[in-house]
Design brief:
The structure holds two protein chains of two kinds. Chain A contains 13 helices and 14 strands. Chain A is of the alpha/beta class. Chain A has two domains: 165 residues, Rossmann fold (3-Layer(aba) Sandwich); 134 residues, 3-Layer(aba) Sandwich (Rossmann fold), CATH 3.40.50. In chain A, helix 1 packs across helix 8, helix 9 crosses helix 13 and helix 10 crosses helix 11. Chain A is globular and about 60 Å long. By secondary structure, chain B is α/β, with parallel strands linked by helices. Chain B has a single domain, classed as Thiamin diphosphate (ThDP)-binding fold, Pyr/PP domains (Rossmann fold), CATH 3.40.50. Chain B contains ten helices and seven strands. Chain B has a five-stranded parallel beta sheet, sandwiched between helices. In chain B, strands 4-5 form a two-stranded antiparallel sheet. The two termini of chain B are 16 Å apart. The relative contact order of chain B is 0.16. At the A-B interface, helix 4 and helix 6 of A face helix 5 and helix 6 of B.
């Protein structure tokens, strides 16, 4: 079994390592210990600025710094980065297409015990609607590190989504793994159905595929780390070759990966799509395993959804 | 400043006002009142105070300007045009489909615009970012931002005020255009944000109060701001909304509407009369 590590750990580690060779500024809003930007702060105190508990101001400050030609990482929890500061992100950063990379940690319900006010299941939907915003939701530590580097070396605003809960570092075990913005990663080939997963749900999709294979159902597993711009070509091919899709995300089924896949598939090759995710509900307090079970974010739920999607295939 | 320079600034400010009225009239909409109230401040900034380069608008050594009260773009556009950033004739394309001169400042397409603004409260934070970047890079350019008095009802203005003082941004100078009126009426009646001087002082700023239409007071205030070390400066500039156009002065009705043809003619008559007085001075 692969090592387990939270993607936020990789965010902090990547900033600290890349800080040696790249000149960028890091901002945080009194959460440096949690978002892991504290690692960068310790190493590069002259390039780290705490903005205090004032996320709206932080995003517009980031825009001002970026307007002078610098690249800025602005960090907070997903709830406050994408939620509270949405308008600052849209108007100060998105509209002028500035080099601000938003590092949003503690996304989704795996925040756990803090409960609904801190479990952001709407950020992918919000960020996806901003023109020119690249939205990346890495699956594991290796992918998260690569995503930070890609954001740093690619022009324009980014929303990088990281989790609090440790996940197995599966991409490090893939042969020839290569992170490419806008390109999905095929974890497993299959002909009966495709599971398209993002972020935290990728390892559960792989687990589901293994269970299904034992029952004679062979699914393709695709990791969509770049939710926008989405890999339309790979999704079209999956729809054409497997005839049914199940999406899996730690996010509301409205507006996130499931919606993005539906949009892409509807326009290219309509096939049944079942969305696994938070069913338009707020989160609640609890342990992460209890929350995942309670909200249906499990390998077993993906297995059941695949069976349903297969039964809906044309000609069945 | 000597009399010749003072007269020259007054003439330019009057030209800015003509540009505002021309632009808003051509657009058939826009915000003349708050543009006219800041015409003298903009003139002073772009023709006296700030280091700018119309030949190379993105010159990295230039001073930065953020119009935090972005709806008064007609005032900024007229000033930039007269300063040589783009043709004065272009002011008549204001708000037209396909034109560069958007309803609110757009840094991506308009020469001389340093930050896209329009949503109130965001610009002052961006100005803080620019001033902080100068500190990080050990550059000596300064950053200026004009805020509306009504705009200071936005909580983000005070987040930015806290930030600027915390990081000792003495290279930042904010100007509050105190014209006393906002869309729904008198600023003190809609939602009273006063006293600005005591509030900014409590947040750690150096505070100066001036008459927004007195160039000599503006000169002294900006010199004092430049000489202030360790803290940001705010200039609270008491102004007349609609300044220079008789029927627009101190009238809340002219916050966000364009003059009709007969009203345009009266406005031009008012401003040309001022121009004539200045020529004869």
């Amino acid at each position: 079994m692969a090592d387990k590590k939270a993607t936020r750990e990789s965010y902090g580690a990547a900033l600290a390592e890349l800080g040696d060779s790249f000149d960028f500024v890091v901002l945080d809003a009194d959460l440096a210990a949690a978002t892991k930007t504290g690692t960068f702060k310790k190493k590069f105190p002259d390039r780290f600025f705490d903005c205090g508990i004032a996320e709206g101001n932080m995003m517009s400050v980031a825009a001002g710094i970026a307007a002078t030609g610098k690249t800025v990482f602005a960090s907070s929890f997903a709830m406050f980065a994408a939620g509270r500061a949405f308008e600052q992100v849209r108007n100060s950063i998105g509209y002028p297409h500035l080099n601000v990379k938003i590092g949003a940690t503690h996304a989704g319900i795996t925040v756990g015990e803090d409960g609904a006010t801190h479990q952001c299941n709407e950020d992918l939907a919000l960020m996806r609607t901003i023109p020119g915003m690249t939205v990346v939701n890495p699956a594991d530590a290796t992918e998260a590190f690569a995503a930070v580097k890609a954001a740093l070396t690619t022009d324009g605003p980014f929303y990088l989504r990281f989790g609090r809960f440790p996940v197995p570092d599966l991409s490090s075990e893939l042969e020839n793994y290569k992170f490419e913005l806008g390109k999905g990663v095929v974890y497993r080939e299959g002909k009966d159905c495709t599971v398209v997963a993002t972020g935290f749900m990728v390892h559960l999709a792989v687990e589901a595929a293994e269970k299904l294979a034992a029952e004679g159902i062979f699914v393709r597993v695709i990791d969509i780390h770049t939710v926008k711009p989405i890999d339309k070509e790979l999704l079209k091919k999956a729809a054409e070759e497997t005839g049914a899709i199940v999406t899996a995300e730690e996010h509301n089924v409205i507006g996130g990966l499931g919606a993005a896949v539906c949009e892409a598939v509807c326009e290219a090759c309509p096939v049944p799509v079942i969305r696994v995710g938070v069913e338009d509900a707020f989160g609640k307090s609890g342990s992460v395993p209890a929350l995942l079970e309670g909200y249906g974010l499990t390998a077993d739920h993906i297995v059941e959804s695949v069976k349903k999607a297969v039964s809906m295939k044309r000609g069945k | 400043m000597d009399k010749k320079e003072l007269l020259s600034l007054k003439k330019i400010a009057n030209q800015v006002r003509i540009g505002i009225v021309d632009g808003v009239y051509a657009a058939g909409c826009g915000h003349p009142g708050g543009s006219l109230s800041i015409a003298d401040i903009l003139t002073y900034l772009y023709f006296k105070e700030m280091k700018v380069n119309p030949e190379n608008p993105k010159d990295p050594t230039r001073d930065r300007f953020v119009l935090s009260k972005g709806h008064t773009a007609p005032g900024l556009y007229a000033t930039l045009a007269l300063r040589g950033f783009f043709p004065v004739e272009e002011l008549k394309t204001l708000r037209k489909y396909g034109a560069r001169l958007q309803g609110h400042p757009d840094m991506k397409h308009i020469p001389g615009i340093d930050m896209s603004t329009g949503s109130l409260g965001l610009g002052i934070s961006a100005a803080c970012g620019m001033a902080l970047a100068a500190k990080i890079d050990k550059k000596d350019y300064r950053t200026y931002a004009i805020l509306g008095d009504g705009e200071s009802e936005e909580g983000q203005v005070w987040e930015a005020a806290m930030f600027a003082a915390h990081y000792h941004l003495d290279n930042l100078c904010a100007i509050v255009d105190w014209n006393g009126l906002q869309i729904d009426g008198k600023v003190t009646e809609v939602m009273n944000p006063t006293p600005h001087d005591e509030k900014f002082r409590a947040f750690g700023w150096h505070v100066i109060s001036v008459d927004a239409h007195d160039f000599e007071q503006l000169e002294a205030a900006f010199a004092e701001a430049r000489a202030t070390v360790g803290q940001p400066t705010v200039i609270i500039a008491k102004s007349t909304k609609g300044k220079g156009v008789s029927y627009m002065e101190n009238s809340v009705d002219w916050h966000g509407k364009a003059p009709k043809t007969e009203e345009y003619e009266i406005a031009m008559k008012d401003l040309l009369a001022i121009a004539k007085t200045l020529e004869e001075a």
